[in-house]
């Protein structure tokens, strides 16, 4: 953790670091900061202590008058660091660093050209996978889809009461999916015109029929995926997100709804659209509940951190 702070605030910031059991290798460099002017403090902080420490630094007004930078450390060879890690309460892999989460969600939830490109390509791949009855292509499209970022942003916004996050995530979903589905519908018309697709092609899709088969397990799987996704984001185990993407049928449902609608198969189109809505709602509900529990745990921990003097 790197902190730039005015000289008059440095003693209180230093007290915070020294009082935190999960801090090692504290370095104070008076007058090292030039823009803005102030002192520079460097410290290695156990992940399970980071969130409460950041909250205390915010109460001191450090972000207003200086800055706080947090960077993950992959390898630290130090007995002092080991002792700090052992002294810190809880497990680092279970700790939620809310500032890190909001920063990451903020980047992943924006409605950008790259987001739309990934979503559109994913829908096209899913459409081709459905047409060819290829579960491999459908799974590939699931992994490629970027929709979990906006869904997580909505959940974070609801829990932290940040309307900007909710609006940003909703915009990415409400604008992104219809655009991707429109392009997929256009591609379907092209496939029809070139003889690559006909309505009869959709008669035998045994391998990918799960796309439009909506049932109780559709919602249950979406809830489990939402829980797993948020846990992966908050515990810094992003590799687990791949499994989350494969679990939910958002992109394939959106893609197949477009294909079925163009081919005049209204029942399958309607069921696919319903599958999409069920999955989106299940993920948001589960992620919101998981974050509420984490938020309550955080508040309990912050109450145990002594407020800085003065």
UniProtKB/TrEMBL annotation:
InterPro entries: DUF389. It comes from the Bacteria. The chain crosses the membrane at residues 113-131, 137-159, 171-191, 211-234, 241-261, 273-294. Keywords: Membrane, Transmembrane, Transmembrane helix. PANTHER family: AT15442P-RELATED. This is DUF389 domain-containing protein. It comes from Pseudonocardia ailaonensis.
